[in-house]
Amino acid sequence: MCHGAGGLAGQHRFGARTNLSIIALGAIKMVLGMSMASLILQMFRFFPQGVLAALLAVSAFELASAARPAFTGGADGARMCLLTCCFTLFFNTAVGFCAGLGCAFLVMASQTVLGEEDDVNEARCAWNHAACVQSLMTMMMMP
Fold first, then answer.
1. Distance (Å, whole) CA 31 – CA 37
2. How many Cα atoms sit within 13 Å of 8 on the Cβ side?
3. Distances in Å between the alpha carbon of 53 and those of 7, 59, 72?
4. CA torsion, points 48, 50, 53, 57, in degrees to nearest 10?
């Protein structure tokens, strides 16, 4: 069973909306695992892989829906998402994250310098927000 972000997204997609639902699911899995582990293992061997693939696809679409605003917001957001996806697929998650973050900062920097007045003001607000977050992170790490 999947317990990562995809598993949680799938559970949310299929109706689990509260903390109690996750706790109840975990308790049920623990009781079943401790009492009937060998029987459940045999059942999973005969479980159709097509059904598991469908559940995984639903989880993938649920996680990908978080990127939808980037594709409707303009070409810069779509380029950032595609760059992050490509680097994640061809290298690893950390490299993809760093590439997407670097691209986001380059887009903000270019909008600060080359954009129209509204874009420049919006980019400056984003830079101020990023600097604020960075200073808070630095203060939290100090002893």
1. 9
2. 7
3. 13, 10, 28
4. -140
Instruction: Report which residue type is found at 66.
Output: A
Q: Which residues contact 40 (CB under 8 A, 6 or more apart)?
A: 32, 33
- What confidence tens digit (pLDDT) does each residue in 87-131 have? 988 998 888 888 888 888 887 777 667 666 666 667 667 666 665
Sequence-separated contacts (24+) of 97-103 with Cβ below 8 Å: 103/79
Residue 62 corresponds to which tokens in the numbers above?
Answer: 């649920």
d(CA 22, CA 10) in angstroms, rounded, equals: 12
DSSP secondary structure string for all residues of 117-137: HHHHHHHHHHHHHHHHHHHHH
| 8 Å CB contact between 115 and 123 | yes
Q: Which amino acid is at 134?
A: Q
At 58-82, the pLDDT tens digits run: 777 777 777 777 666 667 777 788 8
Stated as kind and residue range, the H or E segment containing 22 is helix 19-45
